[in-house]
Amino acid sequence: MTDRSEAADVRREVEAWLAQWWDPERPLVEWRGLLADSGWGCPAWPTEWYGRGLSPDLAAVASEAFARVGAVGSAAGAGMALAAPTILEHGSADVRGRLLRPIVTGEDRWCQLFSEPGSGSDLAGLTTRATRDGDEWVVSGQKVWTTGAHQAAYGMLLARTNRDVPKHRGITYFALPMRQPGVEVRPLRQMNGRASFNEVFLTEARVPHANMVGEEGGGWAAALTTLAHERGLPTARMAAVPAGGQGRTAREAAAEAAEYAKTYEWYPQRAGRPDLVPSQARATGRAAEPVVRQEVARLLSLEKAARWNLERSRASRAKGRPGPEGSVAKLCASDIARSAACLHAEMEGARAMLSGPESPLGGIVAEIIVSVPAGSIAGGTDEIQHNIIGERVLGLPKEPSVDTDVPFRDVRTNIPRS
Ligand SMILES: Cc1cc2nc3c(=O)[nH]c(=O)nc-3n(C[C@H](O)[C@H](O)[C@H](O)COP(=O)(O)OP(=O)(O)OC[C@H]3O[C@@H](n4cnc5c(N)ncnc54)[C@H](O)[C@@H]3O)c2cc1C
Predict the structure, then answer these.
(1) How far apart, in whole angstroms, are the C-alpha atoms of residue 220 and residue 118?
(2) In 10 A of CB 242, how many CB atoms?
(3) What pLDDT does 257 receive?
(4) Nearest protein Cα to ligand 1, atom 32
(5) pLDDT average, residue stretch 6-19
(6) How far is the CA of 177 from the centre of ligand 1 (A)?
(7) I need a labelling partner for 105 at 20 to 30 A (CA). Which of 9, 23, 118, 367 fits?
């Protein structure tokens, strides 16, 4: 619990800092550089790494002060949400020093190069290889489903660096520079017509040894940190531009957010749009039907409970202890999205399949129906979340496995390997 006088001290300090430095006409990157160097951009981060070592409650006091004057905050996205906490926990001082600051300023965007065509749920079975060549590693293989790879400067790359040890122990985590000849990004078109993720082909791509995050062969521990931060995180989006923000900084932040948001435009539909359900029940004349009313009430109650659970998950993540609440939150989000999509379809009937301006909600209902399945796959499928909850929360026996104790090169698989 935060002491009131501590909160008052932080408020005074941040207000004084803002009074001295916040200038709405400052170029965005310059402003965010000040945020990084002062620690006010990420106040919950350690003081030696662009933060002020504040508790989540006190960090919230700081962001309220920012909101009051309409000051723009640090950048958001996969770099801030996933790469930064992983680097803070596992990165060397050199990696932290070089890679964190441009995440805070928004100069470097990141993507997550984990999944492969043959390794999604079985992530530790990945076959992309990295071989040491002097001060660099040479990487070849294929990644898939890589959200935002087309905009990223760096990829959180998992690559196999040792095939003679069991699968979880031969993986290394790298910060891969994306803009180089060995990295080819090809967009994938989804059934909702969007193309927010990509295939990434790595052909002798190069990554400096100094960009290793964690130990050689210790990438699995770092990957678990990234994944834990991904769960309970329905969307990794650019932070909202402050309401009513005026001036050059706010304009540049708004333009950046709008450009970045293109990748995530369909994400509200992916969540099933439960917010539209009550008004749709009235608009379609179904609100008085007992079965529809019952389902609407069930959905909204579930959503409220899930929101509280998500707060719990956020609080533990902010304390650097992302826990199993994240898996529960993710499962709830899938369930709510599916229930909302079913209700939208039930209320509209066959019209729910129509897209275009004359269709229900201008095509939003149709987009909901084809987007909702993504939520129960991305960031670990529902079945995998059930396994995590079963094993880590309920203490049930571990899922049987035949390939965790043998050297990776002896694991039987249908994935072609050289
Ligand atoms: C919108 C979206 C964005 C994504 N963005 C990224 C990204 O940026 N970076 C990235 O690396 N990946 C990304 N992914 C990939 C995502 O992490 C994988 O799709 C997911 O982990 C599942 O892997 P898979 O598709 O290979 O399915 P598979 O693992 O092949 O699963 C197929 C089916 O088998 C079930 N199954 C598999 N194993 C088990 C088991 N042990 N027990 C019970 N059931 C099981 C699964 O639940 C699923 O129903 C994204 C996916 C989506 C949908």
Answers:
(1) 17
(2) 20
(3) 87
(4) 121
(5) 96
(6) 25
(7) 9
Model confidence over 307-363: pLDDT tens digits? Answer: 888 888 777 766 666 667 778 888 999 999 999 999 999 999 999 999 988 899 999
pLDDT in tens, 57-115: 899 899 899 989 999 999 989 999 999 999 999 999 999 999 999 999 999 999 999 99
Site to probe by mutation for ligand 1, drawn from 173, 367, 381, 386 as the one with most ligand atoms within 8 Å of Cβ, is: 381
116 classed as catalytic: no
Chain-wide mean pLDDT for the chain?
91
pTM score, whole prediction: 0.90
Looking at ligand 1, which atom is closest to the CA of residue 111? 8
- Within a 10 A sphere around the Cβ of 25, how many other Cβ atoms? 11
The number of residues making up the chain comes to: 418
Out of 89, 215, 230, 252, pick the active-site residue. Answer: 230
Q: 405, 415, 408: which is closest to 171 by C-alpha?
A: 408
